[in-house]
Amino acid sequence: MRVLKFGGTSLANPERFLQAARLIEKAHLEEQAAGVLSAPAKITNHLVALSEKASLNQPTDCHFDEAVNIFYNIIKGLHAENNNFDLAGTQALIDREFAQIAELLEQIRAAGKVEDAVKATIDCRGEKLSIAMMKAWFEANGYAVTVIDPVEKLLAHGTYLESSVDIAESAKRVDVASIPKRNLVLMAGFTAGNEKGELVLLGRNGSDYSAACLAACLKASACEIWTDVDGVFTCDPRLVPDARLLPHLSYREAMELSYFGAKVIHPRTIGPLVQTNIPCLIKNTGNPDAPGSVIDSDENAAEGLQVKGITNLDNVAMFNVSGPGMQGMVGMAARVFSTMSKAGISVILITQSSSEYSISFCVPAKLADHALSVLNTEFARELQSGALDPVDIIKDLSIVSVVGDGMRTAKGIAARFFSSLAQANISIVAIAQGSSERSISAVVPMNKAIEAVKATHQGLFSNKKSIDVFLVGVGGVGGALIEQIKQQKAFLAKKDIEIRVCALANVNKMLLNENGLDLDDWKNDLQNAIQPSDFDVLLSFIKLHHVVNPVFVDCTSAQSVSNLYVRALREGFHVVTPNKKANTSSYAYYQELREAARQGSHKFLYETNVGAGLPVIENLQNLLAAGDEVEKFEGILSGSLSFIFGKLEEGLTLSQATLLAKEKGFTEPDPRDDLSGADVARKLLILARETGLPLEFEDIEVEGVLPRGFSDGMSRDEFLAVLPDLDAEFDQRVQAAKKEGKVLRYVGSINGSKCRVAIEAVDENHPLYKVKDGENALAFLTRYYSPIPLLLRGYGAGTDVTAAGVFADILRTLHGGI
Q1: How far, in Å, are 631, 689, 699, 748, 766 from residue 754 at the CA level?
Q2: What does the alpha-carbon distance between residue 490 and residue 492 come to, in Å, rounded to a whole number?
Q3: Burial of residue 718, with CB atoms counted within 10 A of its CB: 0-12 exposed, 13-18 middle, 19 or more buried
Q4: In 3-state terms, what secondary structure has residue 667?
Q5: What mean pLDDT value characterizes the chain?
């Protein structure tokens, strides 16, 4: 005989109810079948609400009527499918049951409370009526049906609302030999009977347990749990879309997973099956041909998976019992857990410090206050004497667990687990490993549980690396970056890397999509967006959708955006930017940025702050990390000034060279922004701070190309009109340098603690002599690179080059690189 259990969603409407009936019939035609049914979806919630609201003397008509209508809808659909179905008789039965419920509700209102025994008999009516409807359906189709009354046949011990079945005694009562072989068997889930013959419940969602108990009593060939998913997955597929279906689990793996929060199977379901070695199949009512998942005693069928699943158990509170008197005090642990046991409080997880100074354990959050009360009572004397510190309690926690038989022999699982949590910026409150070595658990803040599951699944099951980009600034560099991301999508996919642009923002509007925006027509989409740009909305978005690896990319030049970096790092973002404002703000903010990145284990990357696409910052950081020291630096750090001074060398005047540079797009719209030398000074300040100099912007000595005060108060066009006034003076400087075999270059230099940007004449032996036409060049004279300096040279300007540098920084946020 096979036992098939169907949950509420499988019985929610006539179509689903009929599908469940067909599956029971198909199984019965292959070998005798027994069906165990839950209440149709939403029914139990309505029934629970009826008794609770009646005890508070609140209206119940809405719940009452909706529940009745659900049953009416199902039986009308069954009658429409087969007019032999006893519609009138079944409706009369439904009416009688709800008339009894109405009487009980009046008693509850009069008493002002609901007794557990009464609550139990109301809450289980949905299962009873499911069986009545299924029996009527099969009888209408010519089948003989045996209905097993669980109150009569399943002996249970416990309370009215939470009992456990005595399998040995129940098997005698069921007496499989007395059931005719041709009869189809049905039994209501969720209920059993106590020693007095009173109805008791097996706990919420206990119909899985009912099915397992019946399978054990009948010595069934299999117990099939039919749900709305294809089987057991490595984690909840609603949280992780690429979660894997597990074809097989051992009993022990399934018990660990269900104990630590897996929703697909009830925690107590496996127990009765283990005793009788009955396999359990998890199948999908909506996809009955799918193979599903098999749970049995085979612990060697790992399918190459060392870890089978990742779960999160929410709404947990952790207690810490500690104090100087605990060390060497015999029996402390026994007293702690005996106290919990006597109070009827389930302890979920235990961890003890090796110093014996403290014991930590977790309980369901709803029992936390009661647990604290009984602990304070038990240890009142020790607390008063100071032998114990006040009991510490942390609420709003979750337990994230990884489970698998293969973990017993595998190496490095714990390291990968905790590394994944660290990468997702998730703090670990406590750690525990099961004595069986088939599970490892971490207690984390509940608001981080979903990120923890996602990050752990990616770390343990997936070679795919994902980056979620939140891009602010979609002008030249930002726009070029978007196009490069689109262009490189296929290339990166071959390396198992996916970059999803989840947000695009300009100064006014913002586009958001947790699955990644469609970038085919992003300009029009952003133009038509209705969401105003708002960093707080962005933060709420990543928390709502539990984004694991968000990267905040600032392609603006705005001080207001750079002021957000510290907050972004603290909220879990990596930060990537070509914007120099943050690194050239006050030295205090510069240090605060680095401390925020360090504390959050996140990256602040700004390679394009100096040299655009040239690998300046990374190389400098690597040199310093290897113990090198910068003794002297000289560099051409402006592509526009590199171009202009190259043209002066070729014979153009200053005004001609500047206009040509502006026409070619080398300069800012107002060339004074380049000619002032301020941009070069900012880049030099960044390099100086990288070498360890605690300088402010005011500490940089700046000689601009323009004389101080020149063109003050003028418009851009007025400035360009008077710029030729400087041509003669510059021509004299160019010619004077030429007579000495030198050329003029605009150079930033660091010599000791002195930083200066100025026009310098350099000869042919100088590393900057040939640098022109928009190139940048940086010469580092260090302890390792001396007397020949380390020279980095290449184009240091342009939107495509800068965007490529930003793209490279985005990829550097990946743990382990590409």
Answers
A1: 11, 12, 8, 11, 20
A2: 6
A3: exposed
A4: coil
A5: 91
277-304 in b/e form (b: 16+ CB < 10 A) is ebbbbbbbbeeeeeebbbbbeeeeebee
For 121, how many CA atoms within 13 A lie in the half-sphere containing its CB? 16
pLDDT at 306 over 90: no
C-alpha to C-alpha distance for 67 and 139, rounded to whole angstroms? 25
- Average pLDDT (581-594) is 96
Q: Would you state the pLDDT for residue 142?
A: 96
Token pair recorded at residue 702: 């700046």
pLDDT of residue 439: 84
Token pair for residue 361?
A: 């354990």
Structure tokens at 424: 């997702």
- Please list, residue by residue across 337-374, b when 16 or more beta carbons sit within 10 angstroms of its beta carbon and e when fewer do: eebbeebebebbbebbeeeeebbbbbbbbebbeebbeb
Strand spans (E) along 285-422: 293-296, 309-322, 349-352, 358-364, 392-403
Dist CA 496 CA 7 (whole Å): 38
Residue 241 has what pLDDT?
A: 80
Residues 166 and 155 sit within 8 Å (Cβ to Cβ): yes
pLDDT tens sequence across 430-460:
888 765 567 889 999 999 999 899 888 888 8
What is the spatial distance between Cα 195 and Cα 154, in angstroms, rounded to a whole number? 10
What radius of gyration, in Å, describes the C-alpha atoms of the chain? 36
Contact 407/375 with Cβ under 8 angstroms?
Answer: no
Query: DSSP string spanning 58-89?
Result: ---HHHHHHHHHHHHHHHHHHHHH-TTS-HHH
**Residue 642 pLDDT more than 90?**
yes
**Whole-model pTM?**
0.70
Distance CA 818, CA 810 (A): 11
Query: Which residues, at least 6 apart from 380, have a Cβ–Cβ distance to it below 8 Å?
Result: none
Is 543 one of the catalytic residues?
A: no
Nearest to 404, CA basis, from 574, 230, 260: 260
The first and second tokens of residue 514, run together, are: 């947790």
pLDDT-based confidence at residue 409 (cuts at 50, 70, 90): low
Which residues make Cβ contacts (< 8 Å) with residue 414, sequence separation at least 6?
A: 433, 440
Mean pLDDT of 570-584: 94
- C-alpha distances in Å from residue 526, one per residue of 503, 506, 507, 534, 657: 10, 8, 11, 14, 38
Annotated catalytic residue: which of 683, 738, 739, 754? 683
pLDDT at 394: 95
Angle (CA) 94 98 99, round 5° = 115
